[in-house]
Amino acid sequence: DHGKYIMGPEVQEVEQKLAAYVGVKHCITCASGTDALLMALMVYEVKPGDAILTTPFTFVSTAEVIALLGATPVFVDIDPVTFNLDPVKLKAVLESDRLKNSGLTVRGIIPVDLFGQPADYDEIQAIAREHNLFVLEDAAQSFGAEYRGKKCGALGDIAATSFFPAKPLGCYGDGGAVFTNDDDLAEKLRSIRIHGKGKDKYDNVRLGINGRFDTLQAAVILAKLEIFDEEVQLRQEVARRYGDLLKPYVETPVVKPDRTSVWAQYSVLSDQREKLMAQLKENGIPTAIYYPRPLHLQTAYQYLGYQSGDFPVAENVAQRIFSLPMHPYLTPEEQEYVKEKVKG
Fold first, then answer.
1. How many CB atoms are closer than 10 A to CB 224?
2. Fewer CB near the terminus (10 Å): N or C of the chain?
3. How many Cα atoms are found within 13 Å in the side-chain-facing hemisphere of 246?
């Protein structure tokens, strides 16, 4: 009955619950996962002349927000097993002549927790500390997953997530959130979210965005949070069944033993991808490719000067990967049917 459709009381309530779930002091909700990434970079005052290192094998938002602020995305190839940013290659890129001679100031790293599995944060954080960089965890796909006993959203200096409807914890529209333990950053993020607001909405103390979270979406997340742990557990069971059923026919995903995945996608590799996808489509089974073209080969990022062959692992995976239906309520019978059609 309160009539506050924007930033109503449910927004504050969901922020408290999300922060407690992740195990951090502050959650600042916003209008989308892209806004969450953008706000996180804005609070670190990322600007032209800065470089941010990230993966080329992810959704475009991760690199887009860097470029929107006039900074330069610098790509690092991925681990062939987890498809996440490879810490060995990260170190190599940081120490490369290409980067040292670029004239750019390296500021931070954005690892992406791809398909729901956390990146190698201990190794990445050690490299970041050595080079005095911040780590922004892109947890858009990994909310609910764990790494060495800590929840995703608590693994970087700051983290961003998405509540896009297809995500493991999705709302009925767009939404996102930023997580941090830093009181100063949290205060600035709350200002950035509402046009750089100061004491009131007509006192603008910094550049900001229109990044507010709808009350309606906050209410949806509050309801879904109540069954979220149960759904995460069901996703583990679905993934385990897929692994047992599909191993003989495709390369199934590997989750490292010190972490969990929330299985935002169930992505497999095959040299027969097009044939298998056609087979599945004929039998009414939807599939999708995440991601068909790495970011360094996208038209929008040609200005960075990368070429085909620069990130061979990402390029190889993009040629062979596809995703199968994945949600908590997939039945063993449905999965058996998927296996039969993959088997052909």
1. 16
2. N
3. 26
Rounded Cα distance, 9 and 7, in Å: 7
Q: How much is the pTM?
A: 0.98
Angle formed at CA 83 by CA 242 and CA 65, multiple of 5 degrees: 120
Return all residues near 42 (Cβ < 8 A) that are at least 6 apart. Answer: 69, 192, 207, 208, 209
- Which residues of the chain carry a pLDDT beneath 70? none
- Could you tell me the domains of the chain? 9-222 (3.40.640.10), 228-343 (3.90.1150.10)
**Cα(27)–Cα(5) distance, integer angstroms:** 19
Q: What CA–CA distance (Å, rounded) separates 111 from 117?
A: 11
Q: Which of 85, 90, 82, 167 is nearest to 130 (CA)?
A: 90
Contact by Cβ (8 Å): 329, 312: no
Please, what is the end-to-end C-alpha distance for the chain in angstroms?
55
126 contacts 236 by C-beta, under 8 angstroms: no
Peptide bond into 291 cis (omega under 30): yes
- List the beta bridge partners of residue 323: 267, 288
Q: Tens digits of per-residue pLDDT, 83-103?
A: 999 999 999 999 999 999 999
What are the respective helix, strand and coil percentages of the chain, to the nearest 5? 40, 15, 40
Question: Do residues 141 and 58 make contact, with C-beta atoms less than 8 angstroms apart?
Answer: no
DSSP-derived letter for residue 214 is: B
Using H for helix, E for strand and C for coil, what is the string for 243-303?
HHHHCCCCECCCCCCCECCCCCCEEEECCCHHHHHHHHHHCCCCCECCCCCCHHHCHHHHH
